Amino acid sequence: METNLETVRIEQIIREAEKGVDYVIRGPEDGAKVATRLVGRDDREVLFVMCLNTKNNVIVVHRCHVGSLNTSLVHPREVFKSAILNNATSVIVAHQHPSDDILTIV
């Protein structure tokens, strides 16, 4: 009897940075500026993962989770998945508050 094997393909939805723009993170302020620019004005809490390379350039911004009006519960595996799939050496996790409170970076 022949065994059929299925290949599972892991897909991710990413939001690419603007063409020709290099985002370099030199400190927390730079991370906040990039996050503020890329997060947008969603009506629900959205958690983003910025994946960085060895030179602290943002290589990809992954929209990791969309929550409710005031909550965004994310399992750590979702953050790690984005980092591993993009060969990131470090990550910045950020989310916005729909109430226009200041952006929180963890």
Automatic annotation (TrEMBL):
One of its GO terms (biological process) is proteolysis. InterPro entries: MPN, RadC_JAB, UPF0758. Residues 23-106 form the MPN domain. One of its GO terms (molecular function) is metallopeptidase activity. The keyword Repeat does not apply. Keywords: Hydrolase, Metal-binding, Metalloprotease, Protease, Zinc. It comes from the Bacteria. Pfam families: RadC. Belongs to the UPF0758 family. This is DNA repair protein RadC family protein. It comes from Enterococcus faecalis. The lineage of its organism: Bacteria, Bacillati, Bacillota, Bacilli, Lactobacillales.
